[in-house]
DNA sequence: GTCTATACCACGATAGAC
DNA sequence: GTCTATCGTGGTATAGAC
């Protein structure tokens, strides 16, 4: 059902979407009022309710628009890796890379929402209530399936339930980092070198996650007596 | 300055604090109104503003009361490990244990706030705005200092900046997990075995984090030619 | 179909009586 | 210390203009 007429300078819906994204990113969801958004967009207050239904539905559309391309880029990255590997399993590092690097690109392209989008995403993922429970699953399903397969091939000795949890931990560390949280930095004693480029941070994140994903199992099946920790004293207490 | 008179059934301030904690945990901060809190506590609406000054100051006191004991338990745990080790460096696993296990205990003791407290804490840590920026540092400083020292001794070959980032990643994965987020679970394809006991989850988390913290450096100084990944195909692309 | 003006009710906060 | 009354602002709903 096409609209019969619309504005010259983008239609109202897009203007609201753009203004909302900008303000939500800058000030957060709760701290941004619909009156600020509609004022910035130059539209009437009631327009947001007409076009979106509610403030929550608005923020949902705001970052649905970003999440699709991001996850598509992740899958495309993985596709490239797998076709290059010609059937052999990938390294864990490269699989993690396929998840993290596209997010890094998003964080640096203002047109794609910039780092602020990831910050908002990271925050909204942690939210126990609201729309996350119904929206995120649909957007992440394909990504999870594909990467779970890849990890399973790369880590054949890790049981499925263990792998699920490790992916969970990976998800947490990644969300936290990409969200730009600097809890430690603020705490002061550990200053995360601000001069570090995003690339070097991502490299550090990848090696951390890859090592965690490949951790030896709590009770080793003793198939491959792999020595992991070295140069560290034995377990105390 | 002691109060001259106070109620029989706990004074107003404590009643508000108790009701607020319960409701904030259940419904989140933004979704809980002062009117609900004061109604549940059986006190007047204006009382919360008289005793605390604002809603924000109230939630701050709510989880300051829990965070102190939690971090004290972490330091005590580390103290015990170190005195038992008699000067030798601890294993990375045991240090991580000292961070995670006290939180597990909190999550299971309703009197200490229960799992809901960790959920609120994890969410509030992700919040870019508000009181976190001024409150959390003071409560976490001692913990960070002590554990950074311990990790530095346990991982003498990891540069300080690298270690800071790895602790950051650890913090993220841990907050995410303890906050009880089950993004993957909801996404469905990866069901995190609900039958898993908290203890087994914590064990998995510890081994994941310990492996990540001990990851080989991106460009190895080649002092200790440590083989980490095995049974995985070589890097593709 | 779109957009506007406007009214509604709940919220956090505060002043002032007691 | 406690209470009532009230203020400004928030998200939402609707009637009606175009």
Secondary structure topology:
Two copies of one chain form a homodimer.
Chain A: H1 12-27, H2 34-41, H3 45-51, H4 55-85, H5 92-108, H6 114-126, H7 132-154, H8 160-178, H9 183-187, H10 198-213
Helix pairs in contact in A: 1-2, 1-4, 1-6, 4-5, 4-7, 5-6, 5-10, 8-10
The first copy, chain A, binds a DNA duplex (18 and 18 nucleotides) through residues 1, 3-6, 11-12, 33-35, 43-51, 54-55.
Q: What overall geometry of chain A do the principal axes of the alpha carbons give?
A: elongated
Q: Predict the CATH topology of the largest domain in chain A.
A: Tetracycline Repressor, domain 2
How many individual helices of chain A? 10
CATH level 1 name of the largest domain in chain A: Mainly Alpha
Question: Structural class, from helix and strand content of chain A?
Answer: mainly alpha
Work out the radius of gyration of chain A. 21 Å
Low-confidence regions of chain A? 1-6, 225-237
Assembly state here? homodimer
End-to-end Cα distance of chain A, whole Å, is: 70 Å
Largest contact between chains:
A-B, 96 and 96 residues
In total, the number of domains of chain A comes to: 2
Order of helices and strands of chain A: HHHHHHHHHH
Please tally the β strands of chain A and state the result: 0
- Our estimate of the beta-strand percent of chain A is under 5%
Overall helicity of chain A: 55-70%
Largest sheet of chain A: none
The CATH architecture of the largest domain in chain A can be named as Orthogonal Bundle
């Amino acid at each position: 059902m096409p609209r019969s007429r619309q504005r010259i300078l983008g239609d109202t819906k897009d203007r609201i979407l753009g203004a909302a994204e900008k303000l939500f990113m800058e000030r957060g969801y709760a701290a941004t009022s619909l009156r600020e958004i509609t004022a910035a967009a130059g539209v009437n207050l009631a327009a947001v309710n007409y076009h979106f239904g509610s403030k929550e539905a608005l923020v949902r559309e705001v970052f649905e628009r970003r999440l699709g391309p991001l996850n598509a880029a992740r899958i495309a990255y993985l596709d490239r890796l797998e076709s290059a590997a010609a059937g052999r399993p990938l390294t864990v590092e490269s699989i993690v890379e396929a998840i993290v690097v596209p997010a890094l690109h998003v964080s640096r392209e203002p047109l794609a929402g910039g780092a602020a989008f990831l910050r908002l995403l990271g925050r909204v993922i942690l939210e126990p209530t609201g729309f996350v429970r119904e929206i995120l699953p649909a957007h992440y399903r394909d990504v999870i399936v594909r990467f779970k397969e890849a990890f399973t091939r790369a880590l054949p000795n890790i049981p499925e339930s263990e792998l699920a949890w490790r992916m969970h931990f990976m998800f947490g560390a990644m969300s936290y980092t990409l969200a730009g949280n600097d809890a430690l930095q603020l705490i002061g004693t550990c200053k995360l070198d601000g001069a570090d480029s995003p690339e070097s941070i991502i490299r550090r994140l990848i090696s951390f996650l890859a090592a965690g994903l490949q951790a030896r199992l709590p009770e080793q099946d003793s198939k491959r007596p792999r020595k992991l920790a070295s140069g560290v004293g034995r377990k105390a207490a």
